[in-house]
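Researcher: Batch entry, complex prediction.
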Amino acid sequence: MGRRGYGPEFPDVTYKPHRYKESLFDTGDAKINYATCGASDKPALLLIPGQTESWWGYEPAMDLLLEHFQCFAVDLRGQGRSSRTPGRYTFDNFSNDMVKLVAFVIKRPVIVSGLSSGGVVAAWLSAYAPAGMIRGAHYEDPPLFSSEVNPRYGPSIREGAGPVFELYSTYLGDQWRVGDWEGMLAAAADELPAQRQSVFLAGYEKFKTEPPRNMKEYDPEWARAFVTGSVSASCDHARMLQNVKCPVLFTHHLSQIDVVTGQQAGAATVRQVDRVEAIIKKAGQHFTRMTVPDMGHNMHLQAPALYMKILLDWVKTLPSEDETRAGGIFDVT
Amino acid sequence: MGRRGYGPEFPDVTYKPHRYKESLFDTGDAKINYATCGASDKPALLLIPGQTESWWGYEPAMDLLLEHFQCFAVDLRGQGRSSRTPGRYTFDNFSNDMVKLVAFVIKRPVIVSGLSSGGVVAAWLSAYAPAGMIRGAHYEDPPLFSSEVNPRYGPSIREGAGPVFELYSTYLGDQWRVGDWEGMLAAAADELPAQRQSVFLAGYEKFKTEPPRNMKEYDPEWARAFVTGSVSASCDHARMLQNVKCPVLFTHHLSQIDVVTGQQAGAATVRQVDRVEAIIKKAGQHFTRMTVPDMGHNMHLQAPALYMKILLDWVKTLPSEDETRAGGIFDVT
Amino acid sequence: MGRRGYGPEFPDVTYKPHRYKESLFDTGDAKINYATCGASDKPALLLIPGQTESWWGYEPAMDLLLEHFQCFAVDLRGQGRSSRTPGRYTFDNFSNDMVKLVAFVIKRPVIVSGLSSGGVVAAWLSAYAPAGMIRGAHYEDPPLFSSEVNPRYGPSIREGAGPVFELYSTYLGDQWRVGDWEGMLAAAADELPAQRQSVFLAGYEKFKTEPPRNMKEYDPEWARAFVTGSVSASCDHARMLQNVKCPVLFTHHLSQIDVVTGQQAGAATVRQVDRVEAIIKKAGQHFTRMTVPDMGHNMHLQAPALYMKILLDWVKTLPSEDETRAGGIFDVT
Amino acid sequence: MGRRGYGPEFPDVTYKPHRYKESLFDTGDAKINYATCGASDKPALLLIPGQTESWWGYEPAMDLLLEHFQCFAVDLRGQGRSSRTPGRYTFDNFSNDMVKLVAFVIKRPVIVSGLSSGGVVAAWLSAYAPAGMIRGAHYEDPPLFSSEVNPRYGPSIREGAGPVFELYSTYLGDQWRVGDWEGMLAAAADELPAQRQSVFLAGYEKFKTEPPRNMKEYDPEWARAFVTGSVSASCDHARMLQNVKCPVLFTHHLSQIDVVTGQQAGAATVRQVDRVEAIIKKAGQHFTRMTVPDMGHNMHLQAPALYMKILLDWVKTLPSEDETRAGGIFDVT
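Model: Structure tokens for the complex:
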């Protein structure tokens, strides 16, 4: 069967046009695609999608946000129209791409909101971005600790999303070089834990012979980087959170323990989120925690109005752009 | 400071005589020390100590057991008087040493009882020993799942004993080649999580300048093998338990969650033991679970009479030696 | 495409009958298939095939050998009719299967001859088998050092067979669960270094739509274990060779450096074999080195008469079976 | 013995003043120390020291260079007065610190010259820095391939500097928390390969009880990052070199094979440098190779005048600062 041919080398079968303007910025290490909307006199908002999502997962939210923000919705390397960078998918590399995008394209302090893996990138930026760059960071249902292979607290990725990522990695292959979509669906019954099978298969009910567009835009090597742990290998989550330097909003969505199997559903356990809260507060940063237990993993797509309301309420509490700028890399005084 | 000089190369400062006869068996891969007591017409009982323990941790229990069993209490490689085998401390190697000891020295079916890491070796034998070799396996408070770096269920070793093993590994070094005992005690306050410090330091209250004998007999490379995960690297606990082929007794001792730090104490969480139970039952094996919540990690040392009583009650339920022998490697019919 | 269905679960499409009798021995950890020929009053000869070979690669040689030896040609776990043991393909596990086969089935000292990966198993047995078990070990063109990911000497597997194993692993999958044979052949041009492509593709010239029988009998997870290094993870080759305890015959076949690409062909470099020789001699063992530069990797298949002649000449120099037996595990005096 | 107390937390015993002005730049992720000299109307030259060196290893060279360049000599994270960042020493992180330093402090295109590990950082910048940032890159005797644990070409670090780094890591410990300098020297005879012992011990002849200043300024966790391979884990050298985008000068110093032990001395083998050359030329970049076989590893310290001459001759061949600037991140047209 061989290479299915999705990704930037095969644009015709991979992409379609969108309502917001897209541009490419070359960091030297990767070409980063981003879409923009909103006026430049509004606060800058950097939107970072989750794993298997592209920037346009934010499209419905952007329709609402553009009144309040100048939005920059990105594709991380290995997502959407951004570069494929084999062997180089790490949170450090994902995040340094964002630092360069803010430094050389956005050129002023930003508020960042990232979902899931994008939420871990948001956490990275809140910890390690240059001074003056980040006004505040929204972590939308992020798998902190729970996406590591050997976390400081609680269960590892192996108990959570690991088996799904292993399916993606095995049957699709780095850069889609295996590309066996039907084989993957057929294998799910054998290879996924019982409680994850039905959710997984229901999600692809209408995509039995061809992957949905978001998957075509996804480099399955991401999945391998999470299964092997290389994505966080030199970016321990506990240590990262100890370095947070700006206000944080953490929205925690659905999280429960299956009473029969004893396995967790959701991006992180309550106890793991407790640890995130304790560490960031100990670091002296303002931490807003909002539990939305009936919400699926992706609030910005499922409930964009609620997502915006929560975001706007929190943004009011943040230091101003000028306060953030003072003494930082955008400060020209 | 350099090498302190403990271990088999430095017998004078490491060992002292014991009340039971010790012998060495050379598996080719390691010399295995074992002590014996009891008559050969009693059931054979293989006793496997825990990490940082040597065979003589069973001495008080052996005083009671010798009436009922022919006991073989061993030092695993890297423990007591057994060989040091740098780079080769894995559950597969520990356990294949035991297979050879049973095959060539004990030469008949055994009941096995192992504590902690020794309990994981007992689990290995219950799963992977040749047919006819194991009548039943007692896992005494074993860190199943919880001693893996990326377990199928629940928190990894990093949340449990990992930081203590990291101290041992860093300040003592493989084969004691660093040997900085005082440095290790001094570093505990900085390098251990708060709730583990006091227990750790209390344990060495009387050993401020020189390690206790059990530590002198311990190769700190064990600790490194657990911290890095090499000890279980090709011996996944979930898969191992799916292969269990004999009756199992699981005694689960102290296990609790610290309400302030949210961290677990004890060798494994209740939920992890639930998974062990579910998997072994699904494999069709008889599983006896006994929770002894007020018991420390080492029941055979702390409460040898209770340990013996529990063991004897369970042994009555096991297939006889002849039943075990039938069709197995010791069957000469 | 999903699972192709090769291996022991799919015997009809995988296997065919052979001229020598096959039997299964269950080590507890794996069922090991072996074929026998020759009389029991001849010296026992254990034959261990190479990677992607099964025991019947020795069939032409056995036709000649049976006059001189009682032959036991095996399938290692993951080869031929032996068990698939996911996550457990290590040299320690391969080799401990052999120890149990010799102990419980052959029951007397053996001469061992293994090709390639089987030659590394032969090396393991020469180093770590119980005393009295091995009269001598023939390493047939073994990738010592060169099959490690981070060897003590010379280039790693990444410069040698690594890219081929990566193809097998990616496109066939553990236990053939991907099973995309055509995709693998199509990908070879992209994914193999230039100088390996033509050899690789020529080898499968007649197998464009269906794998040859030896591949059907091979668990591609072996390939993954070599690419990741898990196969040798706790079995460092340098340390293993320092422990060799019996006479060794090393036949070194084709080995050259491509003048244009600078890459080595052959199982190991001359310098790596020099190191093997130096270490084994330093260990005090008799070492016979024979370079056969115009010979392909598999002499026993390509030139069985020469293979037998070399083996017989060397066997004359070995200690007798009784000398080997003395003081070892088969010694009943 | 415990923590010796070297590094930024213990400035009094670690550092002394130097003749050139030092400044700290905070990248958010690390504070980077750098020293400057020369006029801002001269070409900018970024100097990156080798492992166990600090910026002031360039002091003698800077005395000569200041006439021709505006020099910025840096301490990488974990060197000199720059931050210690436990768990985060990777070529990606080292190099992204440099990108930020050039972007926010130097603010114009630079020529980069780096020694050894610093030469690998120079290679990174030549491959992955943003467009317009690097005029040319001098790799001074860099361990390309040879500092990886599983390189694409030739022997790994284990055959080269690995054993020395293992000594540093074991006896000094991350952030000097073991700090057993004498123990390290005492252990060298046991733990280093014969041909490396004498060089190693001669280097510390005058430092038997206290480490030299450059070592005090070195975080021994660097050594661990190289031994384990985490430093290059998501930065494969072969792939990196395929992305080189500017002219390169490679000076290759002493490199030879010991005729007795068969082991290489020097930072990389001739064949490994051949591969570097072939890859960079294939990437379409101008590659200048200069072999200086009688030169020690550190030419800028050992022969600063020759170092400057070679550098100046090559700089004449580079695109001008304005040519480099065109279309890049410093281009404000």
